Amino acid sequence: MPYADLFIHSASYLATVRGHSGAPARGTEMAEVGMIEDGALAIVGDKIAAVGTTAELEQAGWVGPGTVRLNASGKLVAPGFVDPHTHVLYGGSRENELPLKLAGVPYLEILKQGGGILSTVRATAAADDEALKEQTKKRLQTMLSLGTTTAEVKSGYGLTPDQELRALRLIAELNEESVLDLVPTFMGAHAVPSGMSEEDFTELVIRQMLPQVAEQGIAEFCDVFCEPGVFSLETSERILTRAKELGLKPKIHADELEAAGGAELAARLRAVSADHLLQASDRGIEEMAEAGVIAVLLPATSFNLAKNTYARAREMVAAGVPVALATDSNPGSSPTESMPLVLTLGCLYLKLSPAEALTAATINAAHALGRAERIGSLEAGKQADILMLDAPNLNYLPYHFGNNPVATVVKKGKVVYSAEYRSQ
Ligand code: IZC
Ligand code: ZN
Fold it and tell me: Does ligand 1 come within 6 angstroms of the Cβ of 332?
């Protein structure tokens, strides 16, 4: 047995979130976070070698002369957050929409007038590769400092074959160049470009974009903004069916603003996840549970649209739908990078318990990205993506909000962020 390279010890609490790697946590399993008091982790290379109490791991002989020790006393140790729904590759920003929003102009009305997503499409096309990567790297760095160690990133601000392929190529480059692991999703069907019909654009997505994306192997998932006034249920089904045939796994923006049968479609397609779901029907929720579709809930979007409508997470948990949480980080409806904020909103407005929210932001989020065998929990053999949080217990994490609770981020066994460095 080798000695540990890194030994994190004396954690007030260590939330392992263990036991859910084979299948997402559902129902009462979502509250099982495998908590260890006075917890410790032995890390060898980029992997977790052992998990237990500090005394157990010391007695087992993990700590040797070359072992670096990190004292987590007074802290909560948890898996790195997994953010399974983001649109962080974009040019510009949209603070100009804030006064319109405050005056009551609806999100889709701004889009219909050529603003919203379409204004970000223009800003993204205007930025050269380097500028776009620089802006995105800054957001990724913010995410890392807030505890996110793996994130999904969608294309969708290109809307032409060239620009969509460029976005996916840049996501691949950013994955190589940044500390976070990024998971690429093709979302050509994000908005219908000005001057085109939904039908013509859908043909472009199906006949040109999807085959090229599949051939280049640069996306794992395909997503569609299924919403009346954007892409209809029928169009969404056509696109996702073709995507599946080409080997891309389906995800769907479903039932966000109107109940349109998106949850039912996700179940029918056996989508990996259905996201948003504020207006999902009872039947849609039941069918998602039967089909094992993960509900990726985005409470920061509800909060930021200031509509006082949140997804019915309690009904979903009761029905056996596995629930995950994500930021939806994007310049229009959720301009934030903060998973800690999402955990707070998930508790306060989705009524998840702190334990359920943590499960949703770690192992269930990892399942929503097809990565649960490698990340999302603290178990021997898993990648060493670990947070030391300035919270004496789990309740404190969502309770104390609006500040960054992250003290230290370990990614693949290396300390990559420490709050202490900030003042130096
Ligand atoms: O830029 O507004 N909802 N897509 C669907 C978004 C929000 C992103 C945006
Ligand atoms: Zn989204």
Answer: yes
d(CA 72, CA 70) in angstroms, rounded, equals 6
Q: Which atom of ligand 1 is nearest to the CA of 331?
A: 1
Ligand 2 midpoint to CA 184 (Å): 13
Over the stretch 109-127, which tens digit does the pLDDT of each residue have?
999 999 999 999 999 999 9
Is the Cβ atom of 302 under 6 angstroms away from ligand 1?
no
For ligand 2, the distance from its centroid to the CA atom of residue 87, given in whole angstroms, is 6
Q: Which atom of ligand 1 is nearest to the CA of 87?
A: 8
pLDDT tens digits, one per residue of 282-318: 999 999 999 999 999 999 999 999 989 999 999 999 9
* 137-173 core/surface letters (b: 16 or more CB in 10 A; e: else): eebbebbbbbbbbbbbbbbbbbbbbebbbbbbebbbe
* CA-proximal residue: ligand 1, atom 5 (nearest): 225
| φ and ψ of 173, to 5 deg | -65, -45
9 Ramachandran zone, left/alpha/beta (phi>0; psi -120 to 50): beta
Contact between 159 and 193 under an 8 Å Cβ cutoff? The reply is: yes
**Global pTM value:** 0.98
In one-letter notation, the amino acid at residue 312 is R
